[in-house]
Write a structure and sequence with these properties.
248 residues; alpha+beta; five-stranded antiparallel sheet; 31% strand; globular
Length: 248
C-alpha cells in the first residue's frame, strides 16, 4: 500500500469526513464489491447536509469502471428542496492531471439532483461527476469549469481509489482525464430544522460513466448519537497514529 493509501485507512475515514464541518450527527455507510470499496458520510451542519464521498478501496484503479463517479440515496418522506451549494476536495485528497479552484473547489465538475427517476436502487437524490443520462450542466454545483464542458461529463474528476498507483492502468485512468484521489465533500443547503438524520437510507454508489457499469448498495453501518462524530474521529486518529508509531 502506498503512502497516500495509508493516510486514508478505515481508521481515519471519520476524521476525514469530520473536516467538512461541525455536525450534530453522522450517518456512515461503507461497503464494497470485489476490489471496489466506497465510504459515504452524511453530516448535518445547521441547515446544510454535508456528504463526504471517498473511494476507500486499497486496490489499484486499472480501468474506468474502477473510478467512483457518483453516490445516490433516498430520504424518507416528501422530496426535500435541497440545493447544490459547494463541492471541494476532502482533506488529504488531490487532483491528478488537473487542477482545482483555490481552496480545493471542484463544484463545476460535479452535479446534484433531487427527485430522480431511473437512478440505481430507485434512489431519489444523486451526486455525480458523470452525466449517466440523469445529470446535465444545469445541475452542476457552483464553481469554475476546470476541464472540458461545465458540469458532469464522462470520467472527469471522478474518484481514484486511496490505493491507486497513477502509473498503472489503461489510458483513461493514467493521465487522459483529470481525476481525484480520493474524496470530495459536498454541501447541500435547505435542510429542514426538524430533519432526522436516521431518515437517510438506500445509499448506492456508481462507478464509470454508464449505469450499466458497477453500482451497488452501501450498507449504513453507523448512526452516532448527537455529538458522537467528533469523538469517533478523535478515537480513529489516535488509533491510526498509535499503529504507525508501533510499526516504526
Amino acid at each position: 500500500m502506498n503512502t497516500f493509501a495509508r493516510t486514508l485507512t478505515a481508521a481515519s475515514l471519520f476524521a476525514l469526513a469530520a473536516s467538512a464541518g461541525t455536525a450534530a450527527a453522522d450517518v456512515m455507510a461503507r461497503g464494497g464489491m470485489s476490489s471496489l470499496d466506497a465510504t459515504v458520510v452524511f453530516q448535518r451542519d445547521g441547515s446544510n447536509l454535508v456528504v463526504t464521498l471517498v473511494n476507500s478501496s486499497a486496490a489499484d484503479v486499472l480501468v474506468p469502471a474502477d473510478v467512483l463517479t457518483g453516490v445516490f440515496f433516498s430520504i424518507a418522506g416528501p422530496t426535500l428542496p435541497l440545493v447544490a451549494h459547494s463541492a471541494s476536495l476532502a482533506e488529504g485528497s488531490i487532483v491528478r492531471w488537473g487542477a482545482s479552484e483555490v481552496g480545493g473547489g471542484v463544484g463545476g465538475e460535479w452535479a446534484f439532483r433531487a427527485g430522480l427517476s431511473g437512478a440505481p436502487g430507485g434512489a431519489s437524490y444523486g451526486i455525480s461527476a458523470a452525466g449517466l443520462g440523469l445529470f446535465g450542466p444545469h445541475d452542476a454545483f457552483p464553481g469554475a469549469n476546470l476541464h472540458g464542458q461545465n458540469g458532469p461529463q464522462g470520467l472527469d474528476y471522478g474518484l481514484l481509489s486511496a490505493g491507486d498507483n497513477p502509473q498503472t492502468g489503461n489510458t483513461p485512468v493514467t493521465g487522459h482525464f483529470p481525476l481525484i484521489q480520493s474524496g470530495v465533500v459536498f454541501t447541500l443547503s435547505g435542510l429542514p430544522v426538524d430533519f432526522d438524520m436516521a431518515s437517510i437510507n438506500n445509499v448506492w454508489v456508481q462507478y464509470g460513466t454508464s449505469l450499466s457499469e458497477p453500482s451497488y448498495v452501501v450498507p449504513i453501518i453507523s448512526v452516532p448519537a448527537p455529538g458522537a462524530g467528533a469523538a469517533l474521529a478523535a478515537g480513529a486518529l489516535f488509533a491510526a497514529r498509535r499503529r504507525r508509531t508501533t510499526r516504526r
